[in-house]
Amino acid sequence: MKCAYDEGKIQMFKVFLVEDENVVREGIRKNIQWEQYGFDYTGDASDGELALPMIREIQPDLLITDIKMPFMDGLTLIKLVRNELPRTKIVIISGYDDFAYAQQAISMGVDQYLLKPIIKDKLVEILADLYEKMREERQQQEYIEHFQREAQEYENFSRRRFFEKITTGVLSESEIIETAGSMNIDICAPFYNIVLFSLSSAEYDGSMPESYTEDLAAVQDEVTKLFIGRPELILFRWNITTYAVLVKGTRDDIEPNTIDCIKNIQERCTAAGNDVGWYIARGTPVSRLSALPVCFAEASRILAYRYICPEEHILTEASIQNLRKNNDIKTGTYSKELDTEHIRKFLSSGTEQEIDDFIEQVLQNVGEKVVSATLLCRYLAMTVCFAVIKYLDLIGSGADTVLLTDFWPNDSISTAEDVRNYARQVIKRAIYLRDRESTRQQHVLLKQAIDFINENYTDPSISLDKVAKNVNISPNYLSAVFSQEVGQTLTEYITSRRINEAKNMLRNTDMRLSEIAFSVGYKDPHYFSFVFKKVSGCTPSEYRRGTGSEH
Predict the structure, then answer these.
(1) Which range (259-273, 411-425, 500-514) has the least confidence?
(2) How far apart are CA 166 and CA 354, in angstroms?
(3) N or C: less crowded end of the chain, CB within 10 Å?
(4) Distance CA 3, CA 33 (A)
(5) pTM of the prediction?
(6) Dist CA 448 CA 386 (whole Å)
(7) Are the C-beta atoms of residues 324 and 317 closer than 8 Å to each other?
């Protein structure tokens, strides 16, 4: 019989034994060369009551247990282990007179059984069979996890649209749950919160696709990895520079989950240094999906203060109140003029949805006396206008397009509301011109990215980062734009190109599956087969024979 190390098999599985007869337990432990068959003998116990806490700590891959034992019998132990460790394989030990117990155990999903007296060869045979089964299952699980990591759907445009509908109240609670289910998003929880965070290069001005930098690429990769395997944190993209995290939890852990999420993002962003611009804001927990628009509006309003408080990376109501206090807003006085740098920062990366919050913050920051005097209202409008003109000159978008009659401030501006309306109009126009210029350039770079993928998709090392670096776009920016314009994530596009080429080879050549896998960019033929079936709905062999049914 082949041992577990033959043919490079080096995976080890943990085994735990529960048997009340000392002689039997000692015999099983000592007479089997466990490592030879791929198992690490992690411990044993004389009954289920003693075994359970040890099993919970060790979490064995294989449990071998007698059925009839004192204190806690094997059936009770099996039931508890099945509930808590559903992936653990179970082998029962029974005598001929334990037939009724064995029947119950089998109905509970045990994998094998051993009759007393235990014959070594029979146990070795069972171990060998289980090892192969467990190895294949673990490999399959690793493939699934690898596929999920490669095909992260954070950038998927339909996912962005779904989150937008949640936060704008377009969907009812039942529609949210139904849509989430169709997208394989586990959204249900007793409580929810929203954390927003923005990531960009420190000098990004919004007028062109964000350039590639090693620091920004690294922090974006590290931050998005945070959410793999964290079902309580669901990551969405909100816009090109901003992500949203839907935090889930119970009444007791929603706040700790929110704080932990923010802390982890902060740690990774701080490590990136001053070359990366980052800001985080959060909402107040809510107990219903239908209340998420209010939670999001709060987080969004607070995040918009990043343009007014550029030194405050974690924005809170407290930091906002401190800002107002510092400017003596509560006493009706003011200590600062309108800071045009705040307007420039907003124009560089702000969105149309953030305009109203930003304007309100600017006016509050300046002070009530300023916006209550007619002459000062006109002064504010002129300041906004010149700040916009300066920004558009900077990005080369033709400032004269703003100096039309409709955009030039006039004597009709005399109240705070007039200032709000004027600022909203002129800033909205500037953002339109900024985005128009950015879109023009991103189409050129997107074509270069697609051309690069089409020429290099068979390279096993091709990735979002490699494509972004080649065309000098930040991975974050490329990922967002690619999904929006192409309708697939970049990884989905690469996978599609590979699988389509593989189909052509399967139908038109006699190449072996392993050769085809290597030819289209997969180092592991088994993983290639896994991905092929995931994408196509049939195995490569079935496709070649014409017996498979494609999706």
Answers:
(1) 411-425
(2) 17
(3) C
(4) 10
(5) 0.63
(6) 36
(7) no
